[in-house]
Design a protein that fits this description.
With 517 residues, this protein is an alpha/beta fold. Helices cover 27% and strands 17% of the residues.
Length: 517
């Protein structure tokens, strides 16, 4: 029996929960005996309090110490697929001790190409206390395949069902199975269900609100990978090709994109940007809290005739303006939004800021061409199976669903303006901006790169924000943020269209001395 039919997903939970009351599990091990069509529960074992989980990958922090819980691992719809490879939707579910359960269920989103069942802890965008520590039952999934070569292995797409699972089916199926196990283990159903994710997880959250509007009561969608083909066109081709036109060449005539700007030119650019826009929020603090009001124009840095210091060559300035404006086709039509001038655009790292691009991109060397055929490149850059483009969320909102978006202003991979445009487009389909604000809010995060990092306050509790909205009716006008980049500092992240503004008195390092305006 396939559980992914939308109608079935909408109605099964209550029926299955009633059945679960008849035979409650008496121990963690009993959860492994639960019979669900198409589901193999491979393991159910208690995890003692204080357990620490090793880092999931080099450079990552360890997880824990964890509270006592029961971890359940299983596979949905195990099968042989393309080339005889074994596929199935792997999942894990962490069940707090019965007296510690808060009565709710939270599912964490994936990242990249998924393919890994991450520990079901619910640690991202939940403040200082992960969801499991706060008493949530937490689920995670590999979305239907096993990664073979890192987080960006998309070889599974040759199998149609594996692609469908990744695109939109797996999370809804895992959520319904998790709800059945929860109801069986605790002898009562979860009161509320939540989904929190960023990047691919952000896209997954949008998909769930659009295609499975009855599965989750609250969804948090961060830096969503909502139009990956077009964002890759922007950062993988449009921007480097724009820089190629002004970058120095090597001995073979190929542009050296990593030398497009010298360190001193990059510093001059950032110093001028911050001088122009930093103080708009009432305090000079190395952050731009009003990015949409930032009127910085790189043209002010262009060298004039005979000027060789304190300026940037005019052809480089034109290249930067073209790059940040985003790809346009031959008719001048915007294909993908531009990017914000923000405090984090010059950072280096795995996903460098747009002013610090190296010779190689995430998926291989950048093109060395000086021109790009945007029409041709964009023709096959969209995939309706993966893209969460629908704006009709009438069932989700009518059922009391709440949807929170957030996006880093310095995200060099997915433009925050794309997420903002989607959010604004909800108005036309759902009764206007005022009506949308009753069930959805959008937060821009100054300085933050893709899902974290950068000169930003990138620690904030969006899980608590959506829970309070769903369960208490308290809409999140602002969410307090802190971060390692600015120790001791806090700021309110304000719901669009407002931004944090210093009141003019009190310690400017404290959020309480800012207002949303």
């Amino acid at each position: 029996m396939k559980l992914s039919k939308p109608l079935l997903l909408a109605i099964t939970a209550s029926c299955l929960c009633l059945a679960a009351r008849a035979e409650p599990a008496s121990s963690c091990a009993d959860a492994a005996k639960l019979k669900i069509d198409g589901v193999e529960i491979n393991k159910a074992a208690p995890v003692p309090a204080g357990t620490t989980i090793p880092p999931p990958y080099p450079g990552a922090p360890s997880l824990g110490p964890l509270p006592a819980h029961c971890r359940v691992d299983g596979v949905i719809h195990r099968r042989k697929g393309a080339d005889g490879e074994e596929f199935g939707i792997g999942f894990a579910l962490a069940l707090p001790e019965k007296e510690a359960w808060n009565g709710d269920f939270m599912m964490q989103g994936g990242g990249g190409g998924n393919g890994v069942v991450a520990y079901p802890l619910g640690a991202t965008y939940s403040g200082e206390k992960p969801a499991l520590v706060r008493g949530f039952a937490v689920a995670s999934t590999d979305s239907g395949h096993k990664a073979k070569s890192g987080g960006f292995d998309f070889s599974f797409m040759r199998d149609q069902q594996a692609y469908l699972d990744f695109a939109y089916q797996a999370n809804a199926e895992v959520a319904e199975v998790a709800k059945q196990i929860i109801a069986h283990y605790y002898a009562k159903p979860a009161s509320y269900s939540y989904f929190v994710g960023c990047s691919t997880g952000g896209r997954e959250g949008m998909i769930l609100s659009q295609r499975y509007p009855a599965v989750f009561n609250g969804i948090v969608s961060g830096d969503p990978a909502m139009r990956t083909g077009l964002s890759n066109l922007a950062i993988g081709k449009w921007i480097p090709v724009a820089y190629n036109q002004a970058a120095p060449k090597d001995e073979s005539g190929k542009p050296r994109i990593e030398k497009f700007l010298s360190p001193s030119e990059r510093k001059l650019f950032m110093d001028t940007l911050m001088k122009t826009c930093d103080a708009r929020d009432g305090v000079v603090d190395g952050m731009i809290f009003d990015p949409l009001g930032c009127d910085f124009d790189p043209a002010v840095l262009a060298c004039k005739a005979g000027q060789n210091e304190g300026c940037i060559a005019s052809e480089k300035v034109r290249a930067i303006k073209k790059a940040f404006a985003g790809p346009k086709n031959a008719y001048g039509t915007q294909v993908y939004p531009g990017f914000l001038y923000d405090a984090g655009i010059a950072v280096t790292g795995f996903v460098p800021g747009l002013l610090a691009m190296g010779q190689n991109g995430l998926f291989g060397p950048y093109p060395t061409a000086a021109e790009i055929d945007v029409d041709k490149e964009a023709l096959h850059a969209s995939d309706p199976l993966v893209e969460p483009a629908s704006t009709n969320l009438s069932t989700f909102s009518r059922n009391g669903g709440k949807l929170i978006f957030f996006h880093g202003d310095s995200d060099p991979w997915f433009s925050p303006l794309d997420t903002l445009e989607y959010y604004k487009s909800l108005s036309a389909t759902n009764g206007g901006a005022g009506k949308v604000a009753e069930w959805s809010r959008m937060f821009l995060v100054p300085g933050m790169a893709h899902c974290g990092g950068g000169p930003a306050l990138d620690r904030f509790d969006m899980l608590n924000a959506v829970v309070n909205w769903v369960e208490k009716g308290t809409a999140p006008d602002a969410v307090i943020a802190t971060g390692h980049a600015f120790p001791g500092r806090s700021r309110p992240l304000c719901a669009y269209p407002k931004h944090a503004q210093y009141t003019g008195s009190g310690d400017s390092e404290q959020a309480k001395n800012f207002r949303c305006q």
